Amino acid sequence: MSKNIRTAFLLGAGLGTRLKPLTNDLPKPLLPLNGQPIITHVFERLALVGIERFIVNTHHRASEYPRHFPHGSWRGIPITFVPEEVLLDTAGGLKNIEPFIKDEEDILIHNADIVSSLPLNILLDKHLAGNALATLALRSQGHLLNVALSPTGFVTDIRGALNTGTKKLYQFTGVYIVQRALLEHIPAGKVESIVDTFIRIIRQQTQAVAGVVIDTGYWNDLGTLEQYQRICKEFANE
Question: What is 7-236's CATH topology?
Fold first, then answer.
């Protein structure tokens, strides 16, 4: 297991349908927040924990990414843009960047439209101290509480797919770390959600996917116009 994680994969290929008309001409992660593209707020958080390279998948208005980052970098940190002609979803998108991460043992993955101040060092410490194929950052509160966690810190169910009947559920934040070996469980070229991948892995091995609950800091999923407008106001008042 590596002692540090150098590369982060940011999911930036979504259509941003619920944020139309703002996303008619821009991908959602490039919408402005306090005068800067949303994705740069993610870059900043990742840089604080030592990330040295960003990989961003693109699809909707993909040409806008290199226009906003013409030097292929942010504050000296290189950015690799990986276009998807067909949207591959979260697991398919991860599998698609496999050629770019051959030298990495672990990858930090972050939805590019999530704005948060989660202390990511907690997630890194949890992942690097164990041997799970994936470690998910979870919250006790949220709009989609559907992740079950064992007392020993392993994910036992997501979306009720494994019928564990667990009553205490957590919010998956869209921030997680995977070993590169996890990509062996994702079929190449297939459109697949990472949640479906996790469920398949948990069925095969009960202690393959870990979770850590991080309730400190704020966490915002900018999925709707209302959420985006609210966060813009909050950042403007800081």
Answer: Spore Coat Polysaccharide Biosynthesis Protein SpsA; Chain A (3.90.550)
